[in-house]
């Protein structure tokens, strides 16, 4: 058992925690409390008149077909983004682990895209697949595929999923590489001596030992798909065409900052927060049971 750390000054621990507590208070608890407060109010667009309406905003939001459609869009978008980002990152990490020469350079190139802001990542993909001047759009049309994500809903959804997954692959890649480095090479070598093929070694040794990392990334990627992809959607499609890519977080913005419906927007943000908390709790309650910590 490691010895307990004792600070000579009793105030020092609180001073060390103060910056983080202040950031959490200002950027999480305070906005969350304001959303809860505004969700039970109804006010005009100019903020001149406010009326307490209780749960009326929640009832109104949950009865709107457009909100149910946004829920369905969010589910499709989040599942596809998290799945693609995790699977491709794992594949790239396994491939990078086999490289002998230039391993550090290759890994650095793989991590760089994570430094790109979400809005910039969205614009990059929009330029590449823009139906008017995009290089890949030209190649798709030359191959006989009518590509136009600005008018075609499924194509727009595919484009924002690809951009969001590409942005997150680098983050997942970093953790998978760290997880692979922590696996004892003797286990893999012993399995190879026993005649286990490369595929069998991956599914019976490597992937089970990466279960804690995979579970962690599953939670992180789910939260990322729900919240941090706003900039990508805003830059690429703006929620269109025909609200095909209007996720829950984008609908909160659209109703609150564009349509100036603050009560409904606040109620939607509270519902979104509850959904993410419940989904995370579900993952820890049921998915974590299948995770083995070696």
What does this molecule look like?
With 294 residues, this protein is an all-alpha fold. The chain has one domain (60-290): Orthogonal Bundle (MetI-like fold), CATH 1.10.3720.10. The chain is built from 13 helices and 2 strands, in the order H-E-E-H-H-H-H-H-H-H-H-H-H-H-H. The chain has helices spanning 12-39, 56-62, 65-98, 103-111, 118-129, 135-142, 153-182, 185-193, 198-209, 211-228, 230-236, 248-258, 262-287; strands at residues 41-43, 50-52. It has a two-stranded antiparallel sheet. Strand 1 and strand 2 (50-52) form a beta hairpin. The protein is globular, with a radius of gyration of 23 Å. It starts with 11 loop residues before the first helix and ends in a 7-residue tail after the last helix. The mean pLDDT is 85.
How would you briefly describe this protein structure?
Keywords: Cell inner membrane, Cell membrane, Membrane, Transmembrane, Transmembrane helix, Transport. The protein has helices at residues 12-39, 56-62, 65-98, 103-111, 118-129, 135-142, 153-182, 185-193, 198-209, 211-228, 230-236, 248-258, 262-287, and strands spanning 41-43, 50-52.
Quick one: how many beta strands? 2
Question: Which sequence of strands runs across the widest sheet?
Answer: 1-2
Helix/strand structural class:
mainly alpha
CATH topology: MetI-like fold
- Please identify the top-level CATH class: Mainly Alpha
CATH superfamily, by name, is MetI-like
Mean pLDDT, rounded to whole units?
85
Number of domains: 1
Strand content: under 5%
Helix content: over 70%
Order of H and E elements: HEEHHHHHHHHHHHH
Stretches with pLDDT under 50, minimum 5 residues: none
What overall geometry do the principal axes of the alpha carbons give?
Answer: globular
Tell me which CATH architecture applies here: Orthogonal Bundle
Distance between the first and last residues' Cα? 19 Å
Q: Biggest sheet: strands, sense, closure?
A: 2 strands, antiparallel
Rg, rounded, reads 23 Å
Tally of individual helices: 13
């Amino acid at each position: 058992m490691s010895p307990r750390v004792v600070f000579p000054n009793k105030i020092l621990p609180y001073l060390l925690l103060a910056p983080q507590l202040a950031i959490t208070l200002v950027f999480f608890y305070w906005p969350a409390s304001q959303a809860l407060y505004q969700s039970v109010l109804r006010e005009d667009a100019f903020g001149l008149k406010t009326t307490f309406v209780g749960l009326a905003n929640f009832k109104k939001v949950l009865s709107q077909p457009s909100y149910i459609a946004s829920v369905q869009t969010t589910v499709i978008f989040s599942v596809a983004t998290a799945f693609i980002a995790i699977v491709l990152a794992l594949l790239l990490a396994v491939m990078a682990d086999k490289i002998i020469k230039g391993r550090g350079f290759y890994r650095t190139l793989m991590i760089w895209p994570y430094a790109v802001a979400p809005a910039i990542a969205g614009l990059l993909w929009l330029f590449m697949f823009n139906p008017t001047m995009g290089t890949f759009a030209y190649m798709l049309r030359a191959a006989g595929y009518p590509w136009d994500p600005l008018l075609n809903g499924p194509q727009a959804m595919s484009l924002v999923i690809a951009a969001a997954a590409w942005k997150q692959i680098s983050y997942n890649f970093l953790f998978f590489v760290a997880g692979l480095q922590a696996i004892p090479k003797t286990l893999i070598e012993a399995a190879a001596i026993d005649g286990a093929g490369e595929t069998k070694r991956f599914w019976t040794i490597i992937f089970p030992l990466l279960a804690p990392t995979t579970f962690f990334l599953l939670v992180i990627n789910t939260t990322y798909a729900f919240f941090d992809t706003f900039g990508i959607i805003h830059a690429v499609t703006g929620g269109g065409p025909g609200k095909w890519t209007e996720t829950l977080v984008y609908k909160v913005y659209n109703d609150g900052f564009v349509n100036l419906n603050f009560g409904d927007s606040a109620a939607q943000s509270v519902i979104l927060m509850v959904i993410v908390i419940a989904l995370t709790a579900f993952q820890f309650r049921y998915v974590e049971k299948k995770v083995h910590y070696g």
